Model the fold of this input.
Amino acid sequence: MTSALAGSNLLADLLNGPRPAEWAPLREAAEQRLAGRELPTTSDEDWKYTDLKLLAGGFSPAPEATVDVAGHLLPEMVGTRQVFVNGRHAPHASCASAVPAGVRYFPMSHASEACHTLGSVGNGTAKGLFEDLNTARFQDGAVILVPKNLKVALPLHLLFITKAESPVAVFPRVLVVLERGAELELVEEHHGEGAYLSCPVVEIRVAEGAILRHERVQRESPEAFHLTSLKAEVGRGGQYHSRTLSFGARLSRQEPRVRLAEGADATLDGLALLDGAQVADTHSFLHHAEPGATSHQLHKCIVDGKARAVFNGQILVAKGAQGTDAQQQSRNLLLSEAARVDTKPQLEIYADDVKCSHGATVGQLDPEELFYLQSRGMNADDARNLLTYGFAADVLTHIPVASLRRSLRQLVMARTQAGSLGELS
Amino acid sequence: MSTTLNVVTSQAYKYGFVTDIEADSVAPGLSEDVIRFISAKKGEPDWLLEFRLKAYRHWLTMAEPEWAKVEYPKPDFQKIVYYSAPKPKKPQYASLDEVDPELRRTFEKLGVPIHEQEALAGVAVDVVFDSVSVTTTYREKLAAVGIIFCSFSEAVKSHPDLVKKYLGSVVPSSDNFYAALNSAVFTDGSFVFIPKGVACPMDLSTYFRINNKESGQFERTLIIAEEGASVSYLEGCTAPQFDTNQLHAAVVELVALDDASIKYSTVQNWYAGDKDGKGGIFNFVTKRGLCKGKRSHISWTQVETGSAITWKYPSCVLLGDDSIGEFYSVALTNHKQQADTGTKMIHIGRNTKSTIVSKGISAGDSSNSYRGLVKVQPKAEGARNFSQCDSMLIGQSSSASTFPYIEVQNRSARVEHEATTSKIGEEQLLYFQQRGIPAEEAISMIINGFCKDVFRELPMEFAVEATKLLSLKLEGSVG
Done:
């Protein structure tokens, strides 16, 4: 970040840039909330373990760019993809021909009808700084509206690619609305080259009885900063199942905030595979606002090199949310001397008839398990790699899109050096 | 610093305070002069006065902590009287028959022995139980093996070198807002020194628990166990304690050298305020043990049932290789009580181990939080921690929270944390009642089972009383 001068201010730099014309009232409100705000420091409880000093400034709005997407396409989703390059829709790289009729799936710049919903998910709760920054400056994004009772068979693919020659900032935006009884599978991927800041905002509304399965893959460039806000509202009996896989970025932060209505069900799984000087931070908030909702969260981190994993998982069971069932697990594997994990699962419970539990573990591979494999003739390195792969694979097993599952397994295998073991299923 | 100094100098004049060594108490308010007065009144050496003043000057620069999940009106520190000479207590009643029957009922339920009931209620103590002579007898027995057990003020006079060496060595005077305040104005407390190789022949303070009541609202305790020494120390009692001071800010420091072991047990049942949350003690305590030596062992056990607000994190700094820290806690809140309590385990030495077992019970409109930190520093090769934090909710308007912070910087560490939540519901009670066990007894049994892992760490007579205490505190909460 050569141009990140001391004293320069990220927010001022970015807000001084041009403001896109659309969504003016929304942007004005966000700018007002941002006025006078500064980047959080490690003395803010929410940023205690993640230092944003590296982000001081020097990012400018991203210019237009073109990329070749061939390497990023997945066979199941060739005809259901929307591609965004440097925050702008890339019509020539996109193809939505296989999307069933009735589903509205287009870039936000074409979507006046999303106007009343955009920016309204999670209203009544505080807006995050990076969420507001996105609202103030996003160029484009994807809108997905699935009508009542329509079950979309093919998964949809959202591809956000950033290409930075000098440090730039991009603000991907996604709005997903599932009407009553609708069903959808969505794959959201982030890739890039160079040094840049990406601040995606994802808004999700799952109506009564609807089901959204959401695979999220973060494979940003090793010099990138990735700060995502996700807000989801799940209606009565609705389901939201997400899996967030973090592989890239110098520093990444995921902030999913999910509100569950009566009888809703949520899964919020995560895997972070870190090496070098990477920092991956997940700050999740699961709000059991009404009775009878269930949630499961399994968050795993594998930390090598001098990397750092941070997890802060808050579960709030509101007063009157009887019959809540919330289970949360944070599992961390340290592979090197200098690796570091800071984890903080949190339960806040205001109702008595609930089943809530959380657990956290930090450690290295179990010597007994290593010994077991070695006693069966596997050498020490292979045994270690196999166990490390196994630790991660747990989260990948249930990815519904076969080609994505395969490619991620290969990625994990390569990162855990388990490739020499041959084909693992 | 110049602004601080300005504040300091102007404050002394602001309240027009004149030092009067002869007075029995000082006017409300806090200033350097008040601290000088306390120190002079107690005939303290200069270094201790300096310790106090340094703490006070630092305190002025600090802000009251806001991070705990408790809400209360902030105390006005200029309205507190920081020193008043202890007066001999006049017996209030001629015999136990005159004591409020409600209070007697409580004592009976707790199983407090008659003579202790008398002492606690303020009945004139007769020859049957001469507390002074009991004290003396035990003190002689302890002195014979070289153990020093006395009030903090006495220790300052008789063993100034020991006090100077260890005071503030575990909880520095600048540690936190309330510890700094305590360091500036503490009036008394307890001092224990167990010399090398001595195992203390009795649980300290069991036999003294009715005698050390004058330690006041800013209590200071210092316990030192030398190489190979061991001691079990008990603090507080199960009987309800009333106190006119609303703010209690104690500091407890434990130091364990090589192979030493200190077990510190607390039962706290201070006045919790009435059902609507009026009144009640603010219990803002800093307790920390330093496992300084190799293979040293510090264990905290607490049963917290009283106080309107509890802000307390008995901690262990595991500096010595192979040292062990333990924390066993039962925290019960009812009505409008709020508790934010837990522990910190700081692993610095190699192969250090810690165990945390925390049981929170919240009833009524109360709020009960576990807040803990397990930190494994880079050099703490082979560190091991296990934490179990369970909450039990009784009724629909109480709350239970868990905030465990886990920071690991050594890959050979193994850290495990588990937390669950359960409840006493009508179904469970029905199950008991079907078998002829009345609701009240059933609650007692469920609670007892829930807290078993902690109660078995308590010295025997405390364990028996603690069980009864919890059911007593929960009377009328269920069904």
